[in-house]
Amino acid sequence: MPDVLSHPPLRARDWNQFLHLRMPEAWKRFLLAIVGLALALGAAIFSRVSRESGDLWATLILASMALLLAGIVGLTTVPYLARRVAIPRVRDVFDYDVTRIGMVFCTAAILIGIAALNTGNNLLYFIVATMLAAMLVSGLASARTLRELELDVRLPDHVFAGKPVSARILLRNLRRWIPCFSVRVIPPKARKPRKQWCWESQTFSFPPGRSRDRQWLHLPDRCLRRVAQPAGLPSILEDAAYFPYLGGKSELCADLTLRFARRGRYQQDSFGLCTRFPFAFLTKTRYIPLKRELTVYPSVDPTDEVLEALPLITGEFVSFVRGRGYDLYRIRDYMPEDSARHVDWKATAKSGSPKVREFTREDERKLRIVFDNPAPQLLSADAYEHAVALAASLAWHFNTEDAELSFAAPDYHGESGVYGFLEYLATVEPKTSKSIIDELRPSEEYNMIVTARARGTIPTAIWSCSYVLFMEDHV
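The chain above was modelled as a monomer; its predicted structure follows.
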């Protein structure tokens, strides 16, 4: 049996390493706080003894030490421990809204309590205690219902303005045995626009009250004003999803129909779980941080203008790409460079002269949609939105045709796919920039141009291989 006393004693450095390895930082600070408060209490007691004995300096020194030790503990240890307790509980913070039933119930409890105090009736005291216990049980039960719930919101990949889409909300109960009742998933409350003080550039003029040409002095100046901050992106969820019952370790889903009236980006940073269970005295809401973003494309429903222009566009497009292929374009006279295998013998026999078949070149049906973004204030807001929807409708229509699509627009660097162009149109705004038409060059692509430029400003080389839709014609 080894001799325990033969081991060397534990040195101070080894003891510090042991504390560092075995004891968490929170416990270290807690023990140091206890020691500091104990010393502060001892100093306060001895200062009282010194004051009673008449020693003024000892009383002053000991009282100062007590205050200093208590202040050090309060500034160093208490905030650290409070943060460690508060951070895990951030998700358990609730908002309370008193319902009408709760207001009536509280008013009745107050009136019965006043009557019990005035009459001294034990039955009234019993009724008041029962009502207060019901309120306490309601608060505890609703808080327990909203804890340990996990939320997931699934949104569609492609959304078009004006068209209904389905979104799915999944709610999971992470508890094994305890179910939850009457839970709703709601959007967060709309926040009022906040105002912030900021400096704005102005001009100091003297004397004031006169016209600018009659004033003597004009100096640059700055003024401090309270300006409202720009509102954030609109929220995604507008309606609520209701889950009447969710058992332990189970999952339920609810499908919502979403409809967005305008194109653009929509964002939501949090979703609320609220309940009135069990007595509907309070509406208790727990907000879960869950960020979701959605891009709503412009409407692609063909308008009357698009339906009227499509036959003309299709005819010019087919004429532009006629050649050898599989779709018959026309029967024409034989030319020396034509191949003999394309001779139409029936048409030749009927007409008495050689005829050949001309086909459209499917492998060269290249179409380019061009959106020439106008400058601000050049068009009204409704006319601009109509032009964006026109470009989106054309892109969506020809995407279903046997054509190779490409897209061009100012500051557009997206993919050649139609969804990349629709995402650009979803967030585009009027901007002062160089016209995209001036950057186009003649190519094998047939251009479909949506522009606000005047008719005489389109280059002839581009006009010959393009179909131009002027925005002012479709307002």
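The longest strand covers residues 282-297.
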